[in-house]
Specification:
single chain, about 60 residues, mainly alpha, 1 helix, about 35% helix
């Protein structure tokens, strides 16, 4: 029998396979931490990437 893995965020034992903990850290995490910490951070990253990809209004450069 294999040793149970611990969550890289809360350090509690992981039930099942675990989840990728990126972008919080490079380990694996439990389902609770995935929904409470990892998933919201990924969504936040999508919104930030979308904002950065929008073209800038050139008129804003010349406002005083």
């Amino acid at each position: 029998m294999s040793k149970p893995k611990n969550c890289s965020i809360c350090y509690e034992p992981i039930k099942g396979f675990g989840n990728n903990a990126e972008p919080i850290n490079s380990g694996i995490c439990c389902d609770a931490c995935n929904w409470a910490a990892v998933f919201p951070r990924r969504i936040q990253g999508l919104y930030q990437a979308e904002e950065m990809s929008k073209p800038k209004d050139r008129k804003d450069q010349f406002k005083k």
